[in-house]
Amino acid sequence: MKNNPFVRDIQKDLTRWKQDPEHGILQLEGARQIGKTTEILKFAYRNYKYVIYVNLASDMYKFQKACEQDINYFTMLDYTERAHLPGYVDNRDTILIIDEIQENMEMYNNIRTFANNLNCEIVVTGSYLGRLLAGLKKPDEDTDKKAFIPTGIDLLNMYPLSFAEFCRVFNAEDTLMSISLYGESSDRKYKKLDKLYDIYRQIGGYPAVIKEYIKTQDISACHMRIGNLLELFKAESREYFHDEVEIEIFDMVYDYTLYEMCSNHAGTAKRTIKDVTRIVEDKTKGMTSTRELRNAITWLRYSGILGTCILAENGETSFSTVKKFYFFDCGVTSYLAKRANIDASSLDGIITETFAFDELIRLYSKNTKDPKVRPYLYYGRLGNYELDFLVCSTDNKKYGIEIKTNTGDPKSLKQFLNKRLVDKGIVAKRTKGGHSEKLDTIPIYTVGCRFPYK
């Protein structure tokens, strides 16, 4: 706790899970290096008398071997003795944490057996859980099965630090949550949040990167840290591709897909599989199958690197297969865009739109039992006009949100308002805010945490 002092929102979610008398096994989902293991261990040592932590990636004391038998009190007792832990106590004062559960698909599929045979609390987590659901396997795995989410599983999402959590680190969260959205607070408060927003949009929310900033106050050092994280992710991801050609394709798709997303002025993924295929084939001088490319791009999505926003054609919020992609961290966007030498004006738009996506997508988290929004997060299209985001609240009110980096007229948003495709228009940009009957302007850094902008 001393080494990881950030106060994360996930702790409240974990407490709600524990206090629910009907809770099941907990599955904690999220990308590599965002602090899942740290936070679940913080929670465990605060709330339980006995903590059994198993990491299947190393599995020093052969937990997987113990589970080849019927898991029960005696096999757990045998394991704790082998792992030099206090004798297993089979009650709710004990928590069993199985980390990197993606290393054993059979164990994941049979996790419900653990709950049936044991009385302790159970948590499973891992950085690449999505690969089980996508059916991506390691070369030495001999199964073609996909995993499925067993019944009795409670799901929690975890992300990099949000802007509110980031402000909490710098003792500014109260200011963020209380500041007037419409310019009625003091200049000093807006300036304080503007400064933090400028830092956050460059370094993002990975805990190690924020620690680097606290230590050095150096954006370049933070970007080096982000680069190291991405290289670690690439190295680990290669384990799930089956031959040298697939690995080379993954490396190329990883770089060039992300670069092309950054290169698009709107900051969105308008490159199709066909476009990426051409880029990869030019570089590898060979034929590339659609399946290989889809596997690589699916991997980026399931690993928590990329998120999606769904098209609402003519404002119709029905499910669509047409999507935009965004990074789940604006620091990653900033790092890659600068590495790709994106011009300053485009860079500003890319990072701002990514920031808004990352803040809004948290409204759709599995953690919330009483959500403020209806599924899913959309972007709108009306002829040649494109609206950055369209959010439907649970009281059936549609919010059209346009992200601006300049003083230009929000033409797309006005078109949606004129056609009555949205009920309320929101312009989010660098501003103190302003209010009108149909169209409000709010500070960009409040776009997610202050919804529905009362």
In terms of topology, how is this protein built?
Blueprint (H helix, E strand, L loop, with lengths): L9 H10 L5 E5 L6 H12 L2 E6 L7 H4 L6 H10 L11 E6 L5 H5 L1 H7 L3 E5 L4 H5 L18 E5 L5 H7 L3 H6 L8 H17 L3 H10 L2 H19 L6 H20 L9 H12 L5 H13 L3 E8 L9 E5 L2 H10 L4 H18 L16 E5 L2 E8 L5 E6 L7 H8 L5 E6 L9 E5 L11
Parallel strand pairs: 1-4, 1-5, 2-3, 3-4, 6-8, 10-11, 11-12
Antiparallel strand pairs: 6-7, 8-9, 9-10
Helix pairs in contact: 10-16, 11-12, 12-16, 13-14, 13-15, 16-17
Q: Can you tell me about this structure?
A:
Helix content is 43%, strand content 15%. The protein contains 18 helices and 12 strands. The protein is globular and about 70 Å long. Mean pLDDT is 85; it is low at 265-272. The protein has a domain at 10-157: Rossmann fold, CATH 3.40.50. Strands 7-6-8-9-10-11-12 form a 7-stranded mixed beta sheet, sandwiched between helices. The chain has a 5-stranded parallel beta sheet with strand order 2-3-4-1-5, with helices on both faces.
Head-to-tail CA distance between termini: 36 Å
Find the structural class using helix and strand composition.
Answer: alpha/beta
Helix percent reads 40-55%
Beta strand count:
12
Given the C-alpha coordinates, what overall shape results? Answer: globular
Q: Based on the structure given, which CATH architecture of one domain is correct?
A: 3-Layer(aba) Sandwich
- The mean pLDDT is 85
The description of the largest β-sheet is: 7 strands, mixed
Can you count the helices?
A: 18
Element order: H for helix, E for strand: HEHEHHEHHEHEHHHHHHHHEEHHEEEHEE
- Strand proportion, as a percent range, falls in 15-25%
Question: Tell me, what is the CATH class of one domain?
Answer: Alpha Beta
Strand arrangement, major sheet = 7-6-8-9-10-11-12
